[in-house]
Design brief:
alpha+beta; about 20% helix; 6-stranded mixed beta sheet; single chain; disordered N terminus
Length: about 300
């Protein structure tokens, strides 16, 4: 009896002395699948289709489902603060957090105007995340700074003469569930012919997101990078992340009659999930919806969807 007690006591002391196993402290409040859509809605310019009917774009987006399940994260590019972000918040209701990033113009740093809203200076990108049990949202990286999003570092060469562009990211941090979601829209080749701004912006965004990953956050980054999969400037995003749709080389329709079967179709849109914390469930271009969507009467981009299982 004494020997048995001593043995049991020895086992107990051994357990107490052993180093604790590393535990994942992330909350388990996330749903069994997290469904994400990113879409360049082409909402800011009057030349965009249906720019005078923003609700049509928003309804097309909000009514989407992934594998029959409702969305958890929505990302929009070329969106306007009042026309789209505020309207999206009203449409989604109090069960969602919405963050809009007003984009600085590449050439001047001044706020990007929304021509579709009378030139109102609130053009940019928008991210929305569904609230979950335990959610505690921080709408900007440093709440005390009262910023409206993240900047990305870049020092242009004196020879650079960019004309327009939307650099930066709209991010939502749910510190209660250790989840970070960001969307961005980088300059096109007309504004950034040497891709130098896009290169530095991608590296800067990747580094800032990695800081959260190092703290145990699951991360989701999506948007219109204006870079194709073979471009070297997009490569940093693949370090520590995986893409939702690696086998599709085109998810942008320049015009519905051209689409992705023509040489004029390009892949500019991406959704990246952190390697740690997610398993890919599905990812694909959404090519069908309302007749306006199908025929390119809402945007010159298709939507891109990705779904992951938390692990």
């Amino acid at each position: 009896m004494i020997a048995g007690t001593a043995a049991a006591l020895g086992v107990l002391i051994g357990l107490l002395a052993a180093p604790a196993a590393s535990a994942d402290t992330r909350p388990a409040a996330l749903p069994s699948a997290v469904n994400v859509i990113t879409w360049n809605i082409c909402g800011g310019l009057t030349s965009c289709p249906n720019s005078d009917h923003p609700q049509r774009k928003l309804r097309e987006l909000v009514n989407r489902k992934v594998d029959g399940q409702k969305l958890n994260v929505i990302m929009m590019q070329e969106s306007c603060g009042r026309l789209h972000a505020a309207a999206l918040q009203k449409m989604l209701g109090s069960g969602w957090a919405v963050q809009h990033r007003v984009a600085p113009l590449l050439a001047t740093g001044k706020p990007a105007p929304c021509a579709a809203d009378g030139g109102r200076l609130d053009g940019g990108v928008t991210v929305a995340v569904q609230k979950m049990p335990g959610s505690d949202f921080v709408n900007d990286r440093d709440a005390s700074a009262q910023s409206d999003g993240w900047n990305m570092t870049y020092t242009p060469a004196r020879s650079d003469t960019p004309k327009l562009g939307t650099q930066g990211a709209a991010c939502l941090e749910d510190r209660g569930n250790k989840l970070l979601a960001c969307t961005t829209h980088l300059a096109n080749e007309n504004a950034d012919p040497n891709a130098a701004y896009r290169r530095d912006s991608v590296s800067s965004l990747h580094q800032q997101v990695k800081e959260y990953q190092d703290r145990g956050y699951r991360t989701i980054v999506g948007g219109d990078f204006n870079l194709e999969p073979d471009d070297s400037q997009i490569k940093p995003m693949y370090a520590g992340n995986f893409e939702a749709d690696t086998d599709d080389k085109c998810n942008t329709a320049v015009h519905w009659t051209l689409g992705c079967t023509s040489p004029f179709g390009h892949k500019y849109d991406y959704i990246f999930f952190s390697d740690n914390g997610w398993d890919l469930k599905t990812g694909d271009v959404i090519r069908n919806g309302s007749w306006r969507y199908d025929y390119g009467r809402l945007s010159d981009h298709f939507m891109l969807q990705g779904a992951v299982n938390p692990v």
